[in-house]
Amino acid sequence: MFRLLLTIFLVSAGIFIYGYFRELNPGTITIRISPTDTFELSPVTLVLVSMAGGAFIVTLLVGMRETVHFIGTWRSNRLLRRKEKVDALHREGTHAFMSKRTAEAIGLFEKALALDPNRTDSLLWLGNIYRSENNYAEAIRLHQHAHRVDARNIEVLLELAKDLECAKRYEDALEALQDILKIEPDNLTALIRKRDLFIRLEKWADALEIQHRLLKAHLSESDKRAETNLLVGCMYEVGRQLLERGHPEKARRYFRGAIKKDRGFLPAYIGLGEILVREGKVKNAVEILKKVYTKTKNVIILHRLEELYLELGEPAEIIRVYQEAVQQDPRNPVLQFYLGKLYYRLEMVDEAYDLLSTIEGPQDQMVDYHKIMANLYLRKQHVLQAVAELKKALGFKKRVVVPYVCTHCQHEIVEWAGRCRRCGLWNTYVALPWVDTGKSGADQDHPVPTLRAVPYQGIASPFETV
């Protein structure tokens, strides 16, 4: 009722005011709306019409602004609700994956991506899950999508490189790592993984270049030592490749560089000797290796000298070298065994028997020893003793033929190599005349993938076994 009375009052007041001002302002104003059309208004009416028009325009503009604001708020709230839903699905997906519910996790991440196809962290997680399931093609697709969404995301590129590497697309993986280095030239993770890929591809010169960069980074002392050892190995491999490709002078520089970094790096010494052999300077190679043995006392050097002296037709010289080594270390059963084995190889039956039959050491663990002794007993017409030795040899579950053994992973090979074919470390093979059963292989606790067998032609020196 009050509103009705108020409305009647306001209308009456408006009529009164309109009439009052119209009486004060008599006359009319002609308004042209076209060249021929006109109409007349009183001044008060014109003012009121103008005011009404302005009020309408203001009301229209305010209404439009409020409408835009309302629509924007509605869209923001809708996006916020969708984001909250996507966040919830992402969290549930990560929890499911952590709980080993892989299939459920995949479904949750796919639902999240259906709502927001460009969510980078969901693309990352789902791609990683597919990679763990060995579905490399799908992992690559998802991580490439994430890369298109955020081209400068280092984590995305690292995961993409890992996908490509698992899929054996090594060149593409290198490109992904290079993209990281364009963004962050000193990214250690990318540098290390790029170096490791170059090593896998045996691009040793490229790996060596990166290794020099890594050593300039701020590393701990232990990391610096490990990287220095790897640098020496890469230098050796570059030299080995150059030697195989017919560039002995360039190879010599790298071998000497490796020795300068590590005076005890045996593969480089053997590499230098091999260069001299290929140049026809066998005697020079022999002299160098004899000096190396004097410094290192490494039996592998004696094996290489044995081959070289026999190639020269000078078996007496290698016998003398072995005998001098045994005289300097008379309690060393390793040297005694290899001298006896050399006697046997040269058909010096009595000398071989006299030496091998007196070796003190764990020879019962070595099948090769019993095979040699059986043959020696047969040569000396001692059949019963020969049979006894052969029974010992046949009792071994594992055939061992005087292996070279990696001191890091216990991998055994018959032909020496500068780098272990299992763990990938250099200068770890040692010559053992028996298997040390008291040692537990490092690969039992820390298995490493087997590397592709590398022949090391021209540097690896096969030692003739029985």
What is the secondary structure topology, with strand pairs?
Blueprint: H1 2-24, E1 29-32, E2 38-41, H2 43-98, H3 102-115, H4 120-132, H5 136-149, H6 154-166, H7 170-183, H8 188-200, H9 204-215, H10 221-244, H11 248-261, H12 266-278, H13 282-296, H14 299-312, H15 315-328, H16 333-345, H17 349-356, H18 367-379, H19 383-394, E3 404-406, E4 412-413, E5 429-431, H20 442-445
Antiparallel strand pairs: 1-2, 3-4, 3-5
Structure write-up:
- This protein is mostly helical and 466 residues long.
- It has a domain at 2-115.
- The protein has 20 helices and five strands.
- A three-stranded antiparallel beta sheet has the order 4-3-5, with no helix packed on it. Strands 1-2 form a two-stranded antiparallel ribbon.
- The model is unreliable at 434-466 (pLDDT under 50).
Short account of what is shown:
68% of the residues lie in helices and 3% in strands. It is mainly alpha-helical and 466 residues long. It has a domain at 2-115.
Structural class, by secondary structure, is mainly alpha
User: How many beta-strand runs?
Assistant: 5
State the distance separating the first and last CA atoms.
Answer: 124 Å
Number of helices: 20
Summed over residues and divided by their number, the pLDDT gives a mean of: 84
- What is the 3D form? rod-shaped
Report strand order across the widest sheet.
4-3-5
H/E element sequence: HEEHHHHHHHHHHHHHHHHHHEEEH
The main β sheet shows up as: 3 strands, antiparallel
Share of residues in helices = 55-70%
Q: What Rg, in angstroms, do the CA atoms define? A: 44 Å
Low-confidence parts, pLDDT < 50 over ≥5 residues? 434-466
Beta strand %:
under 5%
